[in-house]
Amino acid sequence: MSSVLIVTDEKELGTILAGKMEPKYGFQGILRASGTEALSMLQILPFELIICKEKIGVEFTAFKVCEYLITNKDDFDKEIPVIILGKSNLTGYARAEAIPANLSYDKILAYAGFLLGKEKIKPSLEAPPAPEPKSEDRTTVFVLPKGGLKAEADKAPEAVKKIVSKFYPFHVRYLMHLPENVKVDFGIYTRMKKGDEFEYNLKIPAGNIVSKADIDKLLMRTSKDLYVTKEEAAKASEFLNKFFIEKFRRSDLDIEKRLMINSDGFEILLESFKTSTFDKFSVEIIKEMVKSIDTLMKMPDGLNQFKNFLATHRLSYGYTHMHFTCLMIFSIVDKFEWGKEQSKNKIIYLSLFHDLCLGSDRLIKLHHKFFEQKNLNEEDKQSMLEHANASAVILENIVKAPKELTSLVREHHGIKSGKGFADSKSISIASLSMAFIVAEDIVTHYLDMQEKLDGTKDRVPSKEALTAYFSDMMKKYDKLTYADAAQAYQKLFL
Ligand SMILES: [Fe+2]
Ligand SMILES: [Fe+2]
Question: How confident is the model at residue 195 (pLDDT cuts 50, 70, 90)?
């Protein structure tokens, strides 16, 4: 029987196309999930047709397949037609044709049938309109505003847009994700305080090929922030984000690598919230991070694996705190009546966003420990008091999050308005907020105990220390969901 090769990582699409190919048209459908796998098939079997996604992960799959067909054309007795599922055919292969990837499965199948000579009429290949997001879809938080983020940011309150200057900051973490010897076509600056002004110094001129050694040298001599000019900011953002976002899509991400990249992503987001350089790429990072956190949350025994990881590795404090909190809530949520109705996605968004407006790892750490707030300057004090509300405002204005989620973000310190900190255990907030508050408190103390073990071989708090802590903690949280959650958390540690 002749065969059709289907190359896609979308399970449902692949299975339907491969499954229907034989009963409908009498061709065997062979499914492969990457360009590399497709090439091995092309070496051993003849095909009548190839259906191939334009891009799978970071691989330009259609390009790879077509390039193979062009270079090895002598091995084939005829030119195999290729249907590219995607926007464009830039492969240079004459028999390839791109069709919209969001066509219905039936249409893709019918077009394949047409090319195979089994259908008389060519189906219409016009792309269907993108579906309107459903407001009741509890797992989708992102709905991009009409006119894009920029339009929405322009409408946002003053607190959201602070920065308009000649230079735009970007986080050094981006540079660590650039490949070796890459050409950078924008200038990279550092800055120094000169009186009341800043002086910007060009460190890497546009057009330079940058090696890892250059980056190391630059990082040794600079603080956290690097700058680009306003004119080159958009270009730089696209360039730097492209390499960073690709890292999330690598197929070889184990738990450790995933945690590291999540932590870098968190720091980058924190910076973009602080400097209001939030753009469409920040949205991409958020989406990738939510997916990535979700993957980690689904791993069996995730909480213990994370504790083991922390014993020997370090991540940013903010990311460590939020990931730990999220894991703890995931571990107990299904045990409670109030928890059964919670979407997991909402818990991830709450964990990821609630402290982002603090803008720095230092403030995130400080604000979890009330007793260390004395020496703050006015600006820091203000950020601390306002951060819950400010994070909720950003979620509302830029990300269009549902009300349910923004009110959880607002009340994560026990006060409904999101301004200030509750000094007693507030009873007028959602059960999930109470469970969140207890989880954050435990995480803060756990990380504190761990910090005190710095310098020892493995940084694991002893059973005695944990027992003593939990017996105190249980007294503090003695009512309502606070008490239920505290008890459930205790079981995770002791
Ligand atoms: Fe927090
Ligand atoms: Fe907070």
Answer: confident
The predicted-structure confidence for 201-256, as pLDDT tens digits, reads as follows 898 999 999 998 888 888 777 666 788 998 898 899 889 999 999 999 887 889 99
Centre of ligand 1 to C-alpha 318, Å, is: 8
Instruction: Tell me the pLDDT tens digit for each residue of 96-109.
Output: 999 998 888 889 99
Superfamily of segment(s) 3-115? Response regulator (3.40.50.2300)
**φ and ψ at residue 50, rounded to 5 degrees:** -125, 130
CA atoms within 13 A on the CB side of 219: 14
Architecture label for domain 148-163+237-493: Orthogonal Bundle (1.10)
The C-alpha atoms of residue 199 and residue 13 are separated, in whole angstroms, by 55
Q: Which residues of the chain are in CATH 3.40.50.2300 domains?
A: 3-115
- Please give the distance, rounded to the nearest whole angstrom, from the Cα atom of residue 478 to the centre of ligand 1: 21
Cα 482 to middle of ligand 2, angstroms: 17
pTM, to two decimals? 0.67
Q: CA–CA distance from 309 to each of 87, 303, 327, 458 (Å)?
A: 42, 10, 14, 10
